[in-house]
Amino acid sequence: MMDRQAIVAKVTRALTGEPAAFAVRNARKIDAQGIDGHFWAVAGPDGTIAATGTRDGDFEAACRAAGLDPASGAVVDAAGRILTPGYVDIHAHGSWEHSFDDGPDGIDVARAGHAVHGTTRQVLSLITNPVDVMCENLRNVRAKMDERPDVLGSHLEGPFLALARKGAHDPACLKAPVPQIVDRMLEAADGSLRQITIAPELPHGISAIRQFAAAGTVPAVGHCDADYATARRAFDAGAGIMTHMFNAMNGLHHREPGPIPAAVEDPRVTIELINDGFHVQDPMLRMGVGFAPHRLAFVTDAMAATDCPDGPYKLGALDVNVVDGHARLVSNGAIAGSTLLLEEAVRRAVTVLGMSPADAVEAATLTPARTFGFDRPNAVTGAPLGLVAPGFAADMLLTDPATWTVEQVWCAGRKLK
């Protein structure tokens, strides 16, 4: 296998280059629309899926219509492997010893670490820092969106978090979401801020949710101590996401229901879940995946140590130690993000939690895409994301059916692995 520096260069070169026509045949397609055997898909030179089907007689004609020789090397025989849409992670901080807060080069490295494991598109999560630093990081993400199609925008996890539920965020940098700071963040993001996590019970919390929502950002309820009524007010004000359900929030209680039932009851809300068996243990995961069918989005909350050996790392300015793949703050032992990949989250969903393959894939593809309107034509991705279907982006994965290991990856018609 190539060393990581070479992989980063290859992935970056592909993503900043042009798409090319390709085709996959003899696959077992799994997406939110179900499972089809003996499946084929043809991607055109524009980076979108031109045609799909299960009849051999239609395959060659579809290839030629896309300007592709059916006998060329651009046609991949899947030999029964699983074909899925590319994974979409809407909450991750980094990988391969780099975070998305580490500037343009750090973004390239961290994205490559996720891309080769099948995450073709990513909302880049930025940790709590001084506001000036967070605004500069927002500008870096915005610039990357102009260079490559895999960066969907940014997610600010902070600084508008409850002190008691701050997790691994620097308490010295936490703020109330006053309008002036909201304006600065929106200006720095220049239309690229997809999501912001807010504790709605903070002073100005509900008004900030309205302010962000009016600007096209999807506020998320999380890192909070909100009661049920306050969470309901937040969702009615425009919040559309629950940040990593169960983690960094008051839990379920029979007389104090808290924010989780408010999210579960509201069909407008996408519910994030970290399916690693550590942030949330398997009995609670099994219960959680049944709470809101078709509204569950697997996220990784992955930090810089993802896909790396155990040892010392940084999360923003805070020291983290990773033991047995689990990241904790050195200062107080608090969980400090994860080392999860969506590839592993999907595998666990099927092999450990007992989810149907179509539902597991949906939670890593169509549902997160739908959260921001990326499941239909839009100004950010152009073609919709989340299905292996004509007109959708040519984001596809070939996966080993025995291990759910991602073997080949395309993003917008670019071959990444």
TrEMBL record:
Binding residue positions for Zn(2+): E157, H223, H244
Cofactor entry: a divalent metal cation
Catalytic site: D301
CDD domains per UniProt: NagA
Any one GO molecular-function label of the UniProt entry: metal ion binding
Free-text comment on the cofactor: Binds 1 divalent metal cation per subunit.
Listed Gene3D superfamilies: Metal-dependent hydrolases (3.20.20.140), Urease, subunit C, domain 1 (2.30.40.10)
Domain of life: Bacteria
One BP term from GO: N-acetylglucosamine catabolic process
Keywords, ordered alphabetically: Carbohydrate metabolism, Hydrolase, Metal-binding
Species the sequence originates in: Bifidobacterium pullorum subsp. saeculare
The protein's name: N-acetylglucosamine-6-phosphate deacetylase
Binding site for substrate: A168, N247, A248, R255, H279, I335, A336, G337
Membership in a protein family: Belongs to the metallo-dependent hydrolases superfamily. NagA family.
Start and end residues of each Amidohydrolase-related domain: 82-401
